[in-house]
Amino acid sequence: MLIASSAMNSHAALFDDKEARKKILEVEAKSQSNFEANQAAINELKKNLAATDAVIKGQGLADMQNQLEALKQEIANLKGELELANHHLGTTQQRQKDLYADTDTRLRKIESAALAPPVEVVAPVALEEADMKAFAEADSLSKSAKHKEAFAAFDGFLKDYPTSKLVPDALYGMGYSQFALKNYKSSLVTHQKVIDLHADSPKVPDAMYSMANSQIQLGQVTSAKKTLRDLVAKYPDAEVTPNAQKRLKTLEALK
């Protein structure tokens, strides 16, 4: 009986060991499964963290890049404004220099004018005396029949005293010298200037009479008659008019 009881006790103990092992194995398996699941979850979390970190870093770089571009643009704008300001400054400085130079030049001119000796003003009477003297010399040569010298003297007078009141007389004298030198065409042109340029001069009748004489020498009788008729009609009281009438009568008598 004791043996049977011992055998039963041994069998029960053996059963208990199997159950315990089974339980242990189950616990170990469950623990392993839980460990693997946790490990997978940890790995997934790490992946998510890495992806999130990459996204964050990418966004940060993009933001930094945008900020950098904005700073570059701002620097470019500031450079442009600085260059424009420098240009305006340079222009203003140049204007100031030009103004100072112009002012300095004007002041120097004023100072020079103040320090310069007074300019001697030639009285109009002196000028009139000079042109009268030059005309008298030319007229004297003409009256002395020195026609070549007289022509040169009258020509010089007209160049030296172009505004003299004696210009009509000098023109007439030069034309007379040309006629005496048998330069009839030149004489005709010179006397025509007296008529065209100095219509109010007392020398116009004399110039017309001399023109008629040049026209006669050139064989322009018809033109000479017309010139003499105009002279008699326009200047009936001129000193030369009686001679013009006689010359006209002679021409009209010619066939």
Folded structure, characterized:
With 255 residues, the chain is an all-alpha fold. The protein has 2 domains: 15-119; 124-253, Tetratricopeptide repeat domain (Serine Threonine Protein Phosphatase 5, Tetratricopeptide repeat), CATH 1.25.40. 85% of the residues lie in helices and 0% in strands. It has 8 helices and no strands. The protein has helices at 2-115, 124-143, 147-160, 167-180, 184-197, 204-217, 221-234, 241-253. The chain starts with a helix and ends with a helix. 18% of the residues are buried.
What is the structure about, briefly put?
This protein is an all-alpha fold. The chain contains eight helices and no strands.
Number of domains: 2
**Termini separation (Å)?**
210 Å
Return the CATH topology of the largest domain.
Serine Threonine Protein Phosphatase 5, Tetratricopeptide repeat
CATH architectural group of the largest domain:
Alpha Horseshoe
Structural class: mainly alpha
The CATH superfamily of the largest domain is identified as: Tetratricopeptide repeat domain
Strand content: under 5%
Question: Level of helix content?
Answer: over 70%
Pattern of helices and strands: HHHHHHHH
CATH first level of the largest domain: which class?
Answer: Mainly Alpha
Secondary structure: number of strands: 0
Measured on Cα atoms, how large is the radius of gyration? 66 Å
- Give the overall shape: rod-shaped
User: What is the residue-averaged pLDDT?
Assistant: 78
Number of helices: 8
Major sheet: none
